[in-house]
Amino acid sequence: MPAPVPATTPVVIRSLVPARMDRLPWSRFHTRVVVALGVTWVLDGLEITIASLIGPVLQSEHTLALGSGAVGRVASVYLLGEVAGALVFGHLADRLGRRRLFLATLALYFIASGLTALAFDYTSLLVFRFFAGAGIGGEYAAINSAIDELVPAQYRGHADLAINATYWLGAIIAAAAETILLDPRLLPPDLGWRLGLLIGPLVVGLVWRHRRTLPESPRWLLTRGHEAEAERMVASIEVEVEARGHALPPVDPARTLALSAAPPKGYGTLAAVLVRTYPSRSLVSFALMASQSFLYNAIFFTYGLVLTHVYAVPASRVPRYFYAFAAGNLLGPLVIGRLFDTLGRKRMITATYVASGLLLTLSAQLFGRGALTATTQTICWSAVFFLGSAAASSAYLTVSEIFPLEIRAQAIAFFFAIAQ
Questions:
Q1: Three-state SS letters, 149-193
Q2: H or E stretch including 260?
Q3: How far, in Å, are 79, 152, 272, 408, 415 from residue 418 at the CA level?
Q4: 90 neighbors 412 (Cβ within 8 angstroms)
Q5: Which residues on neighbouring strands pair with residue 391, listed in sequence order?
Q6: Is 258 helix (H, G, I), strand (E, B) or coil?
Q7: Residue 395 has what DSSP assignment?
Q8: Which domains does the chain have, with CATH numbers?
Q9: DSSP string covering 285-315, please?
Q10: What are the tens digits of pLDDT across the range 236-283?
């Protein structure tokens, strides 16, 4: 790869590479991108759900004998790792490239999560969980930018929302697996929770080979001044697409895009740029990211308590309600995601945020009147998050699209960290 453009010599590059990427029809190449990179959300769903399910097991004298406060700190450390990983690897993804980072972050998660299964005391568990979280946080920054740069604009909305929804696929897989692995009649308590933590590394092993075959983002190459390499990269993708029988139309020269080839900024400078140069976009991004995070954290981390303490649902039966809740979250973006491409981002973002908010308000009123049962409460939550999941996913889509390519990964990391 050619040497990066020096910081003292910013260069404006005019290229048809972005337009050539956007004219591509959906092909096996794009499916490979979505599967190999989108696995991140499955992994995060796995990790969060497994951590919540093994918490009571870790308090047993037959495992690590942790207190309830210690179990809570393990979850907090994982989220802290996600924030740190997003900020560090988001900066590096803009500086060193998407491909290097989406390989490095997945490798970090694979190693740290595997080591977590071997944790021998509280301290080692905290350390390993922090680095597992850092790997996933880094994935969010590197992967969101890479997917948006490799997937054509006409498919991007649906693809992004569908990928984000697979978080709940991971949650469902984890809940189903832990039903078996945490059953003391089947496995010793100190073995079952460790095996559960190896599900994520197993998934990584299945997709690692596919991720290694993915190219660097041609758009990122342009921002680093590697115009010739970007041309070669997009040409190779076009050859692969055409080999599948797709005829590519000519590109209108008027679609030439001007990009600034300059090194990434530090987060202090980035924050100043976001506030001074893009104040409206920054405010919108913060509102979308913070509100979806508040909504999810408020309900997802308390739904079990509501079921057990308000509706007297036995703890052993809570997972049954979780499946319905998770299904609503998974199906929403899959069913209505395409509308974000056909009807437009602005209409659908407004509609999903407003509609999910109204449904949540209605369910809260019914809850306050004592008009709900455990079943109808779960139905209400599932309806709210059928729309809310699409809304939350569109927040990541918005941040990745409204800021310049040159600072995309860092902007995603910045707002992800704020939202957490």
A1: HHCCHHHHHHHHHHHHHHHHHHHHHHHHHHHHHCCCCCCCHHHHH
A2: strand 257-261
A3: 12, 28, 15, 16, 5
A4: yes
A5: none
A6: strand
A7: H
A8: 11-19+217-263 (no CATH), 28-214+268-419 (1.20.1250.20)
A9: HHHHHHHHHHHHHHHHTTHHHIIIIIS---G
A10: 999 999 998 888 989 988 898 887 776 666 777 777 778 888 899 999
